User: Fold this.
Amino acid sequence: MKVIWNSFLTSFAMFSKIPVPKADWTKENMKYMVCFFPGVGAVTGLLVYGYGWLCEAAGFGSLMRAAGLVVIPVLVSGGIHLDGYLDTMDALSSYQPRERKLEILKDSNAGAFAVIMGCVWFVLALGVWSEIGTAALPAAALSFTISRALSGIALNAFPCANKKGSLGTFADASEKKAVYLSLAGWLLLAAALGCCFMDWRLTLFMFLAAGAVYVYYYHMAMKEFGGTTGDIAGFFLECCELAMAFAVMLGGKFL
Assistant:
């Protein structure tokens, strides 16, 4: 039980800025860490839904509402996944050989393409979230759990491009069978909540969008980098959540 509790603490400490008691970063304490990764998404989703409800009650305009919905996930994560997105965009935009792309991922400096594509991401996210109505917001809030569950599955299933990186460390420490079962449980829970208490069609659209990005993630990571890394995982997370938000937006307009 202590190992599970410490895995919970290390997960929230690593993947969020949510204050938690300190736990030692040992291989034992990282054994089930990825199992709790979607829990960070669940907290993020609750905060997003709560903010949307407050904006509705206070009569805020769509721009103010969307700005908060875009920024809250970044604040909760501390920007760790967005940083991976920016680094990956820099590497992909370089059109360099694989070894050079991996070096660019490690570079702490932001290149021009990282800045440009970061602006593109924020503009797209702001536009998409401004079009998601209150009725569809609970479904969209599930996207943060779904994306992290898929990211955790990829961590164990995809080859690591850098065995010495943080992702390789987490993958080596993970109790894979328990992680797979736990993450599958998170996905089933999200699907059940979406289908039973929200619109099942919006839930289906979200899962289809997430699945499409997941397939792209695998092929891109293997082709361009020879596997995945923590930065590429962050790239997937941001793209996956934006794609699911877009699916909810379209579903809310046409269903």
Residues 200-225 form the longest helix (26 residues). The radius of gyration is 18 Å. The mean pLDDT is 89.
